[in-house]
Amino acid sequence: MATSSNSREKYIMKESNELMRKFPSKRLDVSFRNSHTLLPSLTYIPIDQQNAPSPLESLFMFKQPQRTPSNICFEYGWRNPQHNWSLWVRNMHSRFQDVWRRAGIYDSICGSVYQIHKNLDLLFVFGEKWCPKTNTFVFPWGEATITLEDVLVLGGYSLLGECVVTSAFLVSEDEVRIDDRLMEAYTEGVRTPNRKTTHSWWLEQFMGKGSDVEHEAFLALWLSRYVFPGSLNNMIKEVFPLAIRLARGVQVCFAPAVLASIYRDLRSLKNAILEMKDGDSPRVKIQAPFLLVQLWVWERFPTLQPRPKAIRHGEPRISRWGSTSRGFSVQEIQLAIRVAAPDFLWRPYAKAVDGFLPPAFYSEEQELELIGQNVSGKAWLLVLCIRPSVLVGLKGRLEHYFPHRVAMQFGYDQDIPATIEFKAENYIVAWRDFTRRVEDRSLYIPSKNFVAGVTDRYDTWWKVFIQCCRIKGLDILRA
Question: Which of 63, 109, 192, 197 gives 235 a disulfide partner, CB atoms 3.0 to 4.6 angstroms apart?
Fold first, then answer.
């Protein structure tokens, strides 16, 4: 879906004087100014359309049905709080909130008590806009996507800590003993008439029963239901080691793993839509926490938002949308997307919202931070968000991450994105690349109030793409 580039870019960003346009661009709205763009990018407009969002046919030929097909099941990954879950969270919070903060899971656990009403038509329409090749939504006016920043803010999942795969390796006798205890309980659940260790059965066995492994059992349920919900209402024994590590305050880097699962299922959803176009109706199980996709839409498309609630002090961002909803038809959603460019919120977390603290790298004024190779604090969080990488998911599954295609979501100017050829063959290589040292000597951190734009060549490149769509009979403006 992108342009040609032979290898991964060494640096993260580029500063240069460019002919710039505001977004959305207007004929005379152009100026020559200093710009900061994310790499890799092209300094020329390619003659062919190898760099265009592709395959074009799969993006814009499909005619949306009047309602969401029943063969696509979102129930596996859409987890609202079960009975007594909120009570268990409150009980555990009074005893283990400090541990949760050390492990970087505090906001995510607290956010799991909010009920988010599912809008199937909205999820389906946005799934149709997904491009699996670049892991971005392709709209008539540009690209956007759910990023590590969104997973950090909306889901409360940590960007720091151990790899989700290697953290599942138990190292002490005590950890192994606790794992055996959890496995015994899991096996007991399998022996019930239901022959499954369900979430409700697990909660009844451990909540308030005085077990010395109650905290680990609580975290195991949280992981199985709200982080990696791969099985419908059943416990996932593979997360037990992670629960044990978290109970000791070990920080695990969940954000890449969660985002990888969302990218995987957006691809599955898109493929199912394409197969429906061909007359097939395969059953698709969406297993990732897809409520984050809907929250992403609500945060960025004002016309599709339900009325947000006030965030009380200490509440997570997700509390804005708890138990609120607003219905739209497929046609209304498509129209909202088509005309969204002027009002699309590229940086919704920069807006002042009472009770909400944005990520540490949001600054009132622009900053130029000297970083060198040893980066820490807010600069390192920003680096992880804006640097292209391979995301390591649960069980070592890999997904590509291309934030340079959506630079304006981080306050940077957008240039023509180049293709990246990752060479990560397994999770070990991918994780080493994800946490690699920074070659840039300094890091530009834009002001949270800065309104980014696009280079003049990017504006031309996108208009050429739209014209090519029209020549092929694919009117993106009506998609």
Answer: 197
Closest CA to 407 of 361, 452, 461, 366: 452
pTM score of the predicted model: 0.94
Query: CB neighbours (10 Å) of residue 7?
Result: 10
178: its two tokens: 């606790």
Each residue's pLDDT tens digit, 353-393: 888 889 989 999 999 988 876 788 899 999 999 999 999 99
Q: What is the DSSP string of 326-390?
A: ----HHHHHHHHHT-TTT--S-GGGS--TT----TT-BSS-EEEE--S---HHHHHHHHHHS-EE
What is the CA angle 131-46-390, rounded to 5?
40
Coil, helix or strand at residue 138? strand
The one-letter code for the residue type at 183 is M
Closest CA to 457 of 13, 1, 37: 37
Collapsing DSSP states into helix, strand and coil, what is residue 316? Answer: coil
| Residue 460 token pair | 């031309």
Please tell me whether residue 44 adopts helix, strand or coil conformation.
Answer: coil
State the Cα–Cα distance between residues 395 and 257, nearest whole angstrom.
Answer: 9
Query: Are 355 and 312 within 8 A, CB to CB?
Result: yes
**Spatial distance between the Cα atoms of 156 and 254, rounded to a whole number of angstroms:** 9
- Residue 267 makes CB contacts below 8 A (sequence gap 6+) with 130, 132
Which tokens sit at 355? 């009770």
**Nearest residue to 34 via CA among 21, 19, 44, 23:** 19
**Does position 194 have pLDDT exceeding 80, yes or no?**
yes
Residue 477 has pLDDT above 70, yes or no: no
Which among 456, 478, 427, 453 is positioned nearest to 164, based on CA atoms? 427
Per-position DSSP letters for 424-476, written without gaps between them:
--SHHHHHHHHTPPP--SEEEE-BTT----EEHHHHHHHHHHHHHHHHTT--G
What mean pLDDT comes out for the span 220-228?
96
Rounded CA-CA distance 189/194 in Å is: 8
Q: How many CB atoms lie within 10 A of CB 161?
A: 18
pLDDT tens column, 153-185:
999 999 999 999 999 898 899 999 999 999 999
Amino acid at 62: F
Q: Which of 297, 350, 287, 286 is nearest to 321 (CA)?
A: 297
**Alpha-carbon distances of 76 from 43, 231, 284, 291, rounded to whole Å:** 44, 6, 10, 11
DSSP state at residue 223: I
Distance between CA 168 and CA 219 in Å, rounded?
Answer: 14
CA distance 297 to 139: 13
Torsional class of 226: left (φ above 0), alpha (ψ -120 to 50), beta (otherwise)? alpha
CA 450 to chain centre: 23
- State the amino acid at position 112 in one-letter form: S
